[in-house]
Amino acid sequence: QLVESGGGLVQPGGSLRLSCAASGFTFSNYYMSWARQAPGKEREGVAAIYIGGRSAANHADSVKGRFTISRDNAKNTLYLQMNSLKPEDTAVYYCAPGLGGYWSFDYWGQGTQVTVS
Questions:
Q1: Euclidean distance between the first and final Cα of the chain, in Å?
Q2: d(CA 95, CA 12)
Q3: Strands laid side by side in the 112-116 sheet
Q4: 40 phi, psi to nearest 5 deg
Q5: Distance between CA 63 and CA 78 in Å, rounded?
Q6: Could you read off the pLDDT of 49-99 as tens digits, one per residue?
């Protein structure tokens, strides 16, 4: 099970921190990713991380330097720190585990809405 939280309404330039609480699988064995889907658009990968450490993370060019993915394997929780938010970041954000490497998505959580306006 994956439960995302932390979304909301924020002004441009603001910050949010998303969390994804995972259960029912061995969290530390999985690549973990954040993806987003804006209205009328396809879901796109935002950031992905392997077991741990900033050197194990990848970020999409559209968010590089503004968003940071991290994980706490002891708490089975994935995070996404989002700074300098822009209106184009508005979307439903999902977390996903994967065993197929970075940007692999085995299944999704229910998502959390982020609105920048």
A1: 31
A2: 23
A3: 8-10, 112-116, 91-98, 31-37, 44-49, 57-59
A4: 80, 5
A5: 17
A6: 987 555 588 999 999 999 999 999 999 999 999 999 999 999 999 999 998
